[in-house]
Amino acid sequence: MNIFQQTLSLRERRRGFHIITTEIENALPEIAQLKMGMCQVFIQHTSASLTINENADPTVRVDFETFFNKNVPENDPDYEHDYEGSDDMPAHLKSSLLGSSVSIPIRNGRLALGTWQGIYLCEHRNHGGQRRLVVTVWGM
Fold first, then answer.
1. Cα(114)–Cα(83) distance, integer angstroms
2. What are the φ/ψ torsions at residue 49 (nearest 5 degrees)?
3. Distance set, CA 19 to CA 54, 75, 98, 124 (Å)
4. Cα dihedral sign for 15, 46, 119, 3?
5. In 3-state terms, the chain is what percent helix, strand and coil (to 5)?
6. Which end of the chain is more exposed for a tag (fewer CB within 10 A), N or C?
7. Strand, helix or coil at 120?
8. What are the pLDDT digits (tens) for 60-107?
């Protein structure tokens, strides 16, 4: 069994849903050595998240943003955690709904994503800054 791990800093992105599959693959070229295994991607932040979804039509990512903004609105007077800005508490809630990690099987040296699947960075802050990921790969 081989285990590889890399910390990856993503450049700052605007609020929204961004495909980062290629950045993850490039960060760990050792994936190509594995016939089968797993890749776990973990984000070290509480106001951004990760998910896997369609990578073909960009309107899917626009609709994700619309859905989450409608369901977790900013400026809710019931939020107590508001000193970091009106987008902060909603960002924490959105992050918890989507999650801080994704796992992808590895098959024949490649991430075994479906034909139309990609890994998303879900940036929930207006100015979230750089985001750090820990990518861990293991297998044979």
1. 41
2. -145, 180
3. 9, 28, 15, 14
4. positive
5. 25, 40, 35
6. N
7. strand
8. 999 999 999 999 999 999 999 988 999 999 999 999 999 999 999 999
